Amino acid sequence: MEELLKALADPTRAVILDELVEHTGQTLFEICNRLSSRHGINPSRQAISQHLAVLEAAGLVRSERSGRYKFHYVDTAPLRAITERWPDTEAQDSTREADGLGSTTDPDAPRPGALPASKGKNHEDQSCQRAGQQPGQGA
After folding, report:
1. For the chain, what percent of residues have pLDDT higher than 70?
2. pTM of this prediction?
């Protein structure tokens, strides 16, 4: 996950991905030309090659050699790891509302899997006291 986030953090790599999404299967020369003509980005071919290596290490780009040429293809499958780790809660809320389960944006609504709140004390305070600690005291 760290390599994926690192690869996406650089603005030049994001533009490279945009270009490969629009037109996948490009050579280094084609990518450099598109970056220059469409985005005003003029780094060296070596710099773009290094960006492609980072994207490839993250699984976002795969390369294939054909004769003298190396073609670069986008692979967005690794991006699913991000959406699985941090799902779209807005979409979940819409699904819950459509299923008649109500909105989870209501601050008083119970959250799925949440323990019921006890009267007078919150769950954290009770579990601390059971462990022989005062509320707010760390382990």
Report:
1. 65
2. 0.61
Q: What are phi and psi of 85, to 5 degrees?
A: -75, -40
Among the residues of the chain, which ranges form H helices? 2-9, 11-22, 28-39, 45-57, 79-85, 89-98, 123-130
pLDDT band at 86 (very low <50, low <70, confident <90, very high): confident
- Work out the burial of residue 19: count CB atoms within 10 Å of its CB; fewer than 13 is exposed, 13-18 middle, 19 or more buried: buried
Among candidate residues 36, 32, 37, 58, the one with its CA nearest the CA of residue 47: 32
Exposed, middle or buried by CB within 10 Å (0-12, 13-18, 19+), for 61?
A: buried
